[in-house]
Amino acid sequence: MKKRRAIVLFSLFITLVVTAVLPIDAMANEKSDEEILAAARSVIERTIGARSKSISLLLIPSVNRKDAYLIEAKKGKLSISGSSVTAITYAFRTYLQKACHSMVTWNGKHLNLPQTWPDYAEEKITSPYQYRYFLNVVTFGYTTPYWNWKRWEQELDWMALHGVNMPLATVASEAIAARVWKKLGLSDAQIAEFFTGPAHLPWHRMGNLNKWDGPIPLSWHLDQLQLQHRILKRMHELGMHPIAPAFAGFVPEGFQNLHPDVEVKRLTWGGFPQEYNAFVLAPNTKYFEQIGKLFIQEWEAEFGKNEFYLSDSFNEMDVPVPKNDTAAKYKLLADYGASIYKSIAAGNPDAVWVTQGWTFGYQHKFWDTETLKAMLKNVPDDKMIIVDLANEFPKYVWHIEQTWKTQQGYHDKKWIYSYVPNFGGKTTYTGDLSLYASGSAEALKSPYAKTLIGFGSAPEGIENNEVIYELLADLGWTNNSIDLDQWLAAYSSARYGAYPQSLKESWNLLRSSVYGSFSSYPRFTWQTVLPDQKRKTALNTSPAFLQAVKTFLQSADQLKSSQLYRADAIELAALYLSIKADDHYKLALRADTLQQREQRDDELAKAVNLLTVVDRLLQSHPTDRLEPWVEAARAHGTNVKQKDYYESNAKRLITTWGAAQSDYAARMWSGLIKDYYIPRMKLQLSDKRNALREWEERWIKTPWRNTTKAYADPLRVAIEMVNQN
Questions:
Q1: ∠68-71-76 over CA atoms, to 5°?
Q2: C-alpha 270: how far from its chain's center?
Q3: Distances from the Cα of 521 to the Cα of 65, 314, 513, 678, angstroms
Q4: For residues 599 and 615, what is the distance between their CA atoms, to the nearest angstrom?
Q5: 278, 214 in Cβ contact below 8 A?
Q6: 315 vs 381: which has the higher pLDDT
Q7: CA 704, CA 696: separation in Å to the nearest integer?
Q8: For the segment 380-397, what is each residue's pLDDT rounded down to a tens digit?
Q9: 86: which residues sit within 8 A by CB, 6+ positions away?
Q10: For residue 698, pLDDT beyond 80
Q11: What are the φ/ψ torsions at residue 129 (nearest 5 degrees)?
Q12: Nearest of 180, 203, 204 to residue 296 by alpha carbon
């Protein structure tokens, strides 16, 4: 009876949401000068309050369709001019940092606004890029799945201040998809069972996964539609160019059952059982274009006309091509490329197909030059953009030439130079600042710069490693490499209010250790329970990093009044102590293997004691806490059952995930350490270790309540504990 009622409600939902909210006509309305300036001033006002009214804002023309800005301050009068909202807001951020030594970040603000605006010599800058891109498909799982409008509004302001004008916008994809499948004859039950849980939806959208941790409560879809309306409305107010989702060929099992004569291929990904695998439709069937057209039409009926549409058919999956028949392989790929583009153009002839270039590097042995050229050849050059996603990986992980070089600037297609600085939202420090500071300048000087239209970053999870994103924001506005010595001095003055010698020495050590290297999956052994044999999980635990932490903490007396210094000091100390705890835990594992129980228990106790301190320290950190993650998830529920489900889904993603992805997200978070990681360590080194998986599932499904008590003076404790260890 309950199942039948749910199906009826789902059918009613699909009928109602068509007219639930009036669409935004995204592209039809050119903004007036007054509207552009008002939107920019609103961002500035939300950032600094009433002082925003004293700033003169002006519009100037773009330069060859590329944004420009001009800053000048004389005798207490500040004037900021820009060619767009984000040009003005980025210019304001630049002035704020350079002239006022102030900064706005995910971890909070350091605002040092004098009574009179400091003088600033005229500075006029033109971006070398038409677009400045941000977000990853999976950021909508690892960070944003349970965000509300308040948190999205903050993020959109952050984007504007950092110059972003081309963000991904995939919220509410499933509400649109449900309408399409309904029109194609699927039953409500077949549609409802197709989707994964909310935090896992990015992998559903990319065809990696179906059904996992579902079904979603029906109220979710309407909630997401309303949220996406607000997100897109604000993006358009800010002059951004959102990238919406398009059909990539993935169909529900119910569609295959309705059309057994239509060719589909079952895909595999991530070690999941067959029941969770996706199906991809063969190209050149009437359904590919029909379904793709419906997706665009339903999206634009709800949200208004859009220009850019994302479609990725084979993300990290083997392409179902004929073996040992090169000609047939090339033809099939050409057909896929043509079918995807035509399916988008059928819904909107003006649309541009955007695709992630990640898989071209990740599966570089398959995607050689001729193979990629085959897929691209039937797509008009001006109707496609490839996001060259991860320019750290060729050097540090794949050990090959960068993809944009081997693919010759993507064969006359437009492309965006990008990085993936974070995987899974991990909070450990990693990233090659020198590579970030210089890589894009090399691309701009290359023969392939003629089709290079954008720059950006695609982190899997955000609210971490903030120095990287501040640096990348500035790289969106220069043709040249950035001098890190000068840049870090300005960054530190803006973030903390000063740049004492001890801080300078700490940065030199950080640049030679964690920020002079890159690891895609850095995790502690206490987070994976046993050493991971499948992935390179190397953390940079070098003496240089450990000394960098101690040296950073030497600035505490001078900088402790800075909120951002305290946050960074706590996080660095937590990393330091976590490394020390990991050393003890590894010794405990070794002793366990040798059946040295007394030594095992002694080393385990030392690890647990240190991690308990880390847990309490991070309770005072702005973002490194489980509590807001759980609260955000539960807030989406309309009753206790829904709240419990959303919480379990959110906790599953950052712990067991599913199949081969266990412990992938690896957050160093208060609450998660004390209530999940420490009990797992103890269980693994006990006679009940065979019950570990059952314990994990029970923890995921049991509502969690925070019991960690923050230290009264966490900075003092951080300094004492680091010096003692």
A1: 165
A2: 19
A3: 38, 22, 16, 21
A4: 24
A5: no
A6: 381
A7: 13
A8: 999 999 999 999 999 999
A9: 67, 132, 159, 160, 163, 164, 165, 238, 239, 240
A10: yes
A11: -120, 145
A12: 180
Residue 54 CB partners (closer than 8 Å, separation 6+):
78, 117
| Residue 346, number of CB atoms within 10 A of its CB | 19
Residue carrying structure tokens 């995921």: 700
Nearest alpha carbon to residue 725 among 557, 614, 576: 576
> Per residue in 28-53, pLDDT tens?
358 999 999 999 999 999 999 999 99
Interior angle at CA 321, CA 320 and CA 325, nearest 5: 160
Burial of 561 (0-12, 13-18, 19+ CB in 10 A): exposed
Condensed to tens digits (0 to 9), the pLDDT of residues 331-361 reads 999 999 999 999 999 999 999 999 999 999 9
Which amino acid belongs to residue 503?
A: L
Coil, helix or strand at residue 619: coil
Question: What is the torsion angle, in degrees rounded to the nearest 10, for the CA atoms of residue 311, residue 313, residue 315 and residue 321?
Answer: -150
Residue type (1 letter), 415: W
Q: Any residues with CB less than 8 A from the CB of 34 and at least 6 apart, and which? A: none
Nearest to 410, CA basis, from 331, 321, 337, 336: 337
Distance from C-alpha of 266 to C-alpha of 76, rounded to nearest angstrom: 66
Strand partners, 310: 245, 354
Overall pTM > 0.85:
yes
Given its phi and psi angles, is residue 65 left (phi above 0), alpha (psi -120 to 50 degrees) or beta? left
Residue 455 in 3-state DSSP? strand
> Rg (Cα) of the chain, in Å, rounded?
26
Beta strands 68-74; 414-419: pairing state: unpaired
Helices (DSSP H) in 75-218: which residue ranges?
85-100, 139-142, 149-161, 173-183, 188-192, 201-205
CB atoms within 10 A of CB 11: 17
Answer whether 532's CB lies under 8 Å from 523's CB. yes
- Distance from chain centroid for Cα 513: 24
Name 385's Cβ contacts closer than 8 Å, sequence gap at least 6. Answer: 308, 352, 353, 354, 355, 413, 414, 415, 416, 453, 454
List strands edge to edge, sheet with 131-134: 166-167, 131-134, 452-457, 414-419, 384-388, 352-356, 308-310, 243-245
| Gap between the Cα atoms of 368 and 155, Å rounded | 37
- What is the Cα–Cα distance from 516 to 514, expressed in whole angstroms? 6
